[in-house]
Amino acid sequence: KQEVTQIPAALSVPEGENLVLNCSFTDSAIYNLQWFRQDPGKGLTSLLLIQSSQREQTSGRLNASLDKSSGRSTLYIAASQPGDSATYLCAIRTGANNLFFGTGTRLTVIP
Amino acid sequence: NAGVTQTPKFRILKIGQSMTLQCTQDMNHNYMYWYRQDPGMGLKLIYYSVGAGITDKGEVPNGYNVSRSTTEDFPLRLELAAPSQTSVYFCASSYSTGSSGNTIYFGEGSWLTVV
Fold first, then answer.
1. CA-nearest residue of chain B to A38?
2. pLDDT tens digits, residue range B7-33?
3. Best CA proximity match to B21, nearest among B82, B94, B98, B111
4. What are the residue ranges in chain B where pLDDT is below 70?
5. Interface residues on A facing B, Cβ-Cβ cutoff 8 A
6. Count of A-B CB contacts under 8 Å
7. Among all residues of chain A, which has the CA nearest to that of B107?
8. What is the distance in angstroms between the Cα of B112 and the nearest Cα belonging to chain A?
């Protein structure tokens, strides 16, 4: 069974800093990896999806990388803003039926 | 474009009661899913559907039932509610399977407490 780990569980940074969130997984046989954002009391919003054949995806200040051989993905956030404060979840799809989710990293950007 | 809509947002149930969580999507997606999210845990798949009339169990299906009579709707029924079913429930949908790289869209969640 795929195990997905996100460390750290929580992270606080001052506004303007660049930061990296980590996601590791145990089985490299994946279809894709997706990064989500979850605001308190809200559902999940998809940020970036990296297919198995890709190495990275970029959207604005966000850049996600994928290294299947090492079972790792990172989400890089440039020039962080208070509005980036949220919980960030990574999820691995290993088949048609399921996404395996990590437990998330709660990010706080301090003004 | 409403996306994925879940109701109710909050509900308190007594042990042994039954209820249905409603989910509808207006994106003409084939695939729909129900997840639960417990504090400090990742989301776990309860049931999923690949199209109208087709449903299948996920990782944690016990105590739940689903139906998919239309493309748009995918209700989740809790029979004989138990405290272990206290959780946040998320409905989600996608156009196709993840193998084609399609994004999955989530509803805003339903907070359920069983007392």
1. B108
2. 999 999 999 999 999 999 999 999 999
3. B111
4. 1, 97-101
5. 4, 31-32, 34, 36, 41-46, 49, 51, 89, 91, 93, 95-104
6. 64
7. A43
8. 13
